[in-house]
Specification:
- The complex is a heterodimer of chains A (about 400) and B (about 270).
- Among the domains of chain A are: about 1-35, no CATH class; about 45-290, Cytochrome Bc1 Complex, Chain C (Up-down Bundle).
- Chain A is about 65% helix and about 0% strand.
- Chain A contains 16 helices and two strands.
- Chain A has helices at about 15-20, 25-35, 50-65, 75-85, 90-120, 125-150, 155-165, 175-180, 190-220, 240-265, 295-300, 305-320, 325, 340-360, 365-390, 400-410, and strands spanning about 35-40, 235-240.
- Chain A has a two-stranded antiparallel sheet with strand order 1-2.
- In chain A, helix 5 packs across helix 10 (about 240-265).
- Residues about 1-5 of chain A have low confidence and may be disordered.
- Chain B has a domain at about 50-75 and about 120-245: Cytochrome Bc1 Complex, Chain D, domain 2 (Orthogonal Bundle).
- Mean pLDDT of chain B is about 90; it is low at about 25-30.
- Chain B has helices spanning about 1-30, 50-65, 85-95, 125-130, 150-160, 170-175, 215-230, 235-260, and strands at about 100, 110, 160-165, 185, 190-195.
- The radius of gyration of chain B is 25 Å and the shape is globular.
- Chain B has a three-stranded antiparallel beta sheet with strand order 3-4-5.
- By secondary structure, chain B is mainly alpha-helical.
- The longest helix of chain B is centred in the last third of the chain and has 30 residues, at about 235-260.
- Classes of the chains: A mainly alpha (about 400), B mainly alpha (about 270).
- The interface between A and B is large, with 51 and 51 residues.
Chain lengths: ~400, ~270
């Protein structure tokens, strides 16, 4: 897909030409975001990369403004957040956009990941592109977790207690590592201060990894709903205006739903207990993380052994790193994989089930359900995918993207 | 393709729903707590606003009853002007309130409250508050409505959910180990609540002539506390309507542009 459209662009504006001759940022933009040949058959699932980028920028922009009004101290953090809500002009707007934005950033990224799973976007030659994506997911999780601690509510404090205590499960050095993370012998002001510093730092690390993700994407270009390679110019359209405009529409629709929550139900996705100031002496009856961590929380609690639970939880992400080599099928798109097509939805159902188990106290039926869900999650990646690639008979692939698109429109 | 996605989505939903329904049934059966009934609130829904008259009456209930034990430390008296009260009306509301301060000589004094003051706290510090209330300080009410599941219904439920000792069944008295000095509340988790019934019929006399039934007082104070928890709610909803109208227009425009751009590619 290295085919670029003809000669380097000529800029009529003298200033732009002068700059570009010395620092070719304008040529770069022309090549990578204007002429960049992109498969012509994307569906709306391909909007979510752009949507996630918009959310990342929005989170950083609102976050910087919040940081200028927030006080990272155990005695003042809670009240400083409420001061933002009450006394800072439009502070409520910035804070609710940031708070709801975290949820919608995860929604966008989870749909983006589902797209990758369904259409086999992680397969050769896009393995590193996928792995960088999993790194972004991990960084997002760390950032979101530390951000949730900052308002210093009950769930902030007790969520942080549960998650940091996981490190005590590491044999021999576990306790020392936890003390080191806390900056003391309990979660206190040093913990809050370092979480604040890291919560400010990590988003910029995410920006860096996103840049690498995009560079890797632009080497071989995007995958597409048919999962077949681009064979020539008839299979592609220039990125601009075709996909800039389509992404623009998708972003607007996504923002409408996001704004619906941010303005009309800003606390719907949060836990009411986080409006109670942190109290190290009063443990809430049910400690639950934010919704986007619930499936992983269910996996953690499904294993009756603490170290086992921690390993399973981290393993559930780690398995994604090696996914390109676990899936032995050479066919990318699930549209041509009659069996996998169903199992990818079973996996989604399994993750939803784990989410529900994570939201509820580990009692009664939720315990075996979470265990079955966990077992199935690993079964899907470690056994089903390697075996399915060997036994499944994929449907015949169309000769080219253009061929498939034109045939569909004719019929 | 589209068909398979739809049918798969239905299968996914059915599978999850089935499993969850089984699990949910086991849990509800084990919980003895009663959920307070849902009531209609003036501030509900995308266009709901605070009922100013109710919130003003609610402030009266707070000032005359609740404030004896519960602080409202995130609010300042000036905030009351947001309830359609003039500066002079607020000043007359707070004219008898004394707040702690330091005198010119650095000695602690009490002086009349000003608009810029935070609401007076009933106890000087949490330790005194706990000592005066059987070991547990009454919680601050500033964000109480946001800090409980279904906050407005819950607070209204607590205020109206007391069952007098002589109305309790022998089983209840035994199960919750109650004596005549304990307070039983239908909606409080665990039912034994430290707070004695704070409100009753005619506990306050409303200046606007509204009949002060228990239900009325509870509703009014919830209206007031809801405003205290989320004073910018009306601004938020108004902005939200404009933002969504803008985004809808923008989405329509983008869709038209996208169709136009793609016209020759289909």
């Amino acid at each position: 897909m290295a085919s670029s459209h003809g000669t380097p662009p000529v800029f009529n504006n003298k200033v732009i030409a002068w700059i570009d001759h010395r620092l070719p940022i304008f040529s770069y933009m022309e090549k990578e975001y204007h002429h960049f040949p992109t498969p012509r058959n994307f569906n709306y699932f391909w909007n979510f990369g752009a949507i996630a980028t918009v959310m990342l920028v929005l989170m950083i922009a609102t976050g910087i403004v919040l940081a200028t009004n927030y006080t990272p101290h155990t005695t003042m953090a809670f009240d400083s957040v409420e001061r933002i809500m009450r006394d800072v002009p439009s502070g409520w707007l910035i804070r609710y956009l940031h708070m709801t934005g975290a949820s919608f950033f995860f929604i966008a990224v989870y749909i983006h990941i589902f797209r990758g799973l369904y259409y086999g976007s992680y397969k050769s030659p896009r393995e590193l592109l996928w792995i960088l994506g999993v790194v972004i997911l991990l960084l997002m999780m760390a950032t979101a977790f530390m951000g949730y601690v900052l308002p210093w509510g009950q769930m902030s404090f007790w969520g942080a207690t549960v998650i940091t205590s996981l490190f005590t499960a590491i044999p021999v050095v576990g306790d020392s590592i936890t003390t080191w993370l806390w900056g003391g012998f309990a979660i206190d002001n040093p913990t809050l201060n370092r979480f604040y510093a890291l919560h400010y730092l990590l988003p910029f690390v995410i920006v860096g990894v996103v840049a690498l993700h995009v560079v890797a994407l632009h080497v071989h270009g995007s995958n597409n709903p048919l999962g077949i390679d681009v064979k020539g110019p008839q299979d592609t359209v220039p990125f601009h205006p075709y996909y800039t405009m389509k992404d623009g529409f998708g972003v607007m629709v996504f923002l409408i739903i996001y704004a619906g929550f941010a303005f009309f139900a800003p606390n719907y996705l949060g836990d009411p207990a986080n409006y109670i100031q942190a109290n190290p002496l009063a443990t809430p009856t049910h400690i639950v993380p934010e919704w986007y961590f619930l499936p992983f929380y269910a996996i953690l609690r499904a294993i009756p052994n603490k170290l086992g639970g921690v390993l399973a939880m981290f393993g559930s992400i780690a398995v994604l790193f090696v996914l390109p080599w676990l899936d032995t099928s050479r066919v990318r798109s699930a549209s041509f994989r009659p069996i996998y097509k169903w199992f990818v939805f079973v996996l989604v159902a399994d993750v939803f089930l784990l989410g529900v188990c994570g939201a509820n106290p580990p009692e009664g039926w939720y315990v075996p359900l979470a265990q079955i869900g966990t077992l199935y999650y690993f079964f899907h990646f470690l056994i089903l995918l390697p075996v399915l690639g060997k036994i499944e008979r994929p449907l015949p692939l169309p000769p080219s993207i253009a061929d498939a698109v034109l045939k569909k429109n004719a019929g | 393709m589209r068909k398979t996605i739809v049918s798969a989505a239905i299968a996914v939903a059915a599978l999850t729903a089935g499993a969850v329904a089984i699990a949910a049934e086991t849990v509800t059966a084990s919980e003895s707590e009663q959920k307070p009934p849902h009531r209609h609130w003036h501030f509900e829904g995308p266009f709901g606003t605070y009922d100013r008259a109710a919130a003003q009456r609610g402030y009266q209930v707070y000032a005359e009853v609740c404030s004896a034990c519960h602080s409202l430390q995130l609010l300042a008296y000036r905030n009351l002007m947001e309830l359609d009260l003039t500066e002079n009306q607020v000043k007359s509301l707070i004219k008898d309130i004394q707040v702690p301060d330091l005198g010119d000589d650095g000695q602690p004094i009490e002086r009349p409250a000003r608009l810029s003051d935070s609401f007076r706290k009933p106890f000087a510090n949490p330790a005194i508050a706990a000592a005066a209330n059987n070991g547990k300080a009454p919680p601050d009410l500033s964000v109480m409505i946001k800090a409980r599941e279904d906050g407005p219904d819950y607070v209204h439920g607590i205020l109206t959910g007391y069952v007098p000792f002589d109305k309790l069944t022998p089983e209840q008295i035994k199960e919750f180990n109650l004596t005549k000095d304990d307070n039983f509340n239908k909606y409080y988790p665990g039912h034994r609540i430290a707070m004695p019934p704070p409100l009753a019929d005619d506990k306050v006399t409303y200046a606007d002539g509204t009949k002060a039934t228990l239900d009325q007082e509870a509703s009014d104070v919830v209206e007031f506390l809801a405003w205290a928890s989320e004073p910018k709610m009306e601004d938020r909803k108004r902005t939200g309507v404009r933002v969504i109208l803008f985004l809808l227009a923008m989405a329509g425009l983008m869709y038209a542009v996208k169709r136009q751009v793609w016209a020759d590619k289909h």
